[in-house]
Amino acid sequence: MQLKSNYIFMKQNVLYLAKSNVYNLAYIDLLQKSGYKLQRWEVGSPSQDTYKVVIIDSDFFLPEKLWEKIIELKKITNVLIVIVPNDKVTEFSVKVLELGANDAIVNTATPQEFLARLNTALKIVGEDIPKYGKDENIQDIGIGDTIAHYRLDNVLGIGGMGVVYEAVDVNLDRKVAIKVLSQDADLKPIHVKRFLREAEIMAHLQVPEVVRIFDIGREPVKYIVMEIVSGVDLENMLIEKLFTPKETVEIILSVALALHKIHEAGVIHRDLKPSNILIDQSGRIRIFDFGISKLLDAELTLTKPGTSMGTPAYMAPEQIDGNIGVIDRRTDIYALGLTAYEMITGKLPYDEKKDEDEGLWETLKEIVFGNPLTLQKYRPDIDPELDKIIKKATEKKSSRRYQTMLEMAQDLQKLDLSLASYGTRGEISQIHHT
């Protein structure tokens, strides 16, 4: 099949802006085999603002036009998906999501992964998914549908593993968040079982800092119902300012104590990062996103094409290479140490300035083999004791880290926060996000 320019999937109300290359041809070949009816966009075809879902290949536009096109399309479409280059996946993914895109797919993703993302988007906007080659008994879920006694009103987030909706519990007349596992995601029964088991454990935990779980369901789809929390996450706060060491210690201490309770119950977060730590309207720390991200676990590695990786920058070495060690509570300790480092410096330890041609794999090599920088490189006035705590939390070998969150918390509690250096803030110009 030759692909020369734009294609639209007329029946499914999708516009696909793509160049002719190996991965786009592979994606379109699977779409046709899966029952999608393709028609090439020509002069006189409906305008772009009539499509509910738009997919754009970042190579389709000149670099200087790509960002403004994303902003333009986001204003006129319900769901915008961008295919980003493998060699600049972190840079491009962060940028397109900041500009308002709903999803970013790396161009090395398998056609099956691409299809799962598209099908998820179609469910969100209430479009039919072709049934060719699929189980006719699968029930599609989207905005306006009701699961049990929860009405789906809006989309809070999407990914290859599922969708998070804003919903209303019609029995109690309250807003909730409901996380629905994708029926198209390639999940083994053991992954689904673990997802529901950990949700059940967390539903019975009384940890104020963790977003509460209200309900768990298995029919007609697998889902978890949670509270909706208003506030600002650390990632967005870091755009505006750096944290003082005192602010950092207080926040990290609260997170460590909360995660210790979770770890003792047998649950590991596995995807801890600033965007998953929120300060609510009352000023309380809240931790969320225990769920879909953990389904990937150690069975899926970064070398498997199409794997949804979360944010590689916060992964511990053992998450990148399973031969290094097992994923356990010390993996969360590593991520919490990185988060503390970034809150103070605006950087990650291995995040030195690279040539533009260096991409994801260079970052991953640094995580596994590189020498983390010390806080004192950017903040010479920092308390050496705080520097030691963050160094220990982010050791490459998990055996050399703190073995429990409680150990880390106890060392944080020993710090003398009255020292002058704890009240000073770094310069905003230091900030550099991966």
Roughly what is the average pLDDT, rounded to an integer? 77
Q: Pick out the low-confidence regions.
A: 1-5, 132-139, 292-310, 352-357, 428-434
CATH class of the largest domain: Mainly Alpha
Reported for the largest beta sheet, the result is: 6 strands, mixed
Whole-number count of domains? 3
What would CATH call the architecture of the largest domain? Orthogonal Bundle
Structural class of the secondary structure composition?
alpha+beta
Number of helical regions: 13
- What's the count of strands? 15
The dominant shape is: globular
What is the CATH topology of the largest domain? Transferase(Phosphotransferase), domain 1
CATH superfamily of the largest domain: Transferase(Phosphotransferase) domain 1
State Rg: 22 Å
Strand percent estimate: 15-25%
For the record, give the distance between the C-alpha atoms at the N and C termini, rounded to a whole number.
37 Å
Q: Give the fraction of residues assigned to helices.
A: 25-40%
Sequence of strands across the biggest β-sheet: 3-1-2-4-5-6
Written as H for each helix and E for each strand, in order along the chain, the element string is EEHEEHEHEHEEEEHEEEHHEEHHHHHH
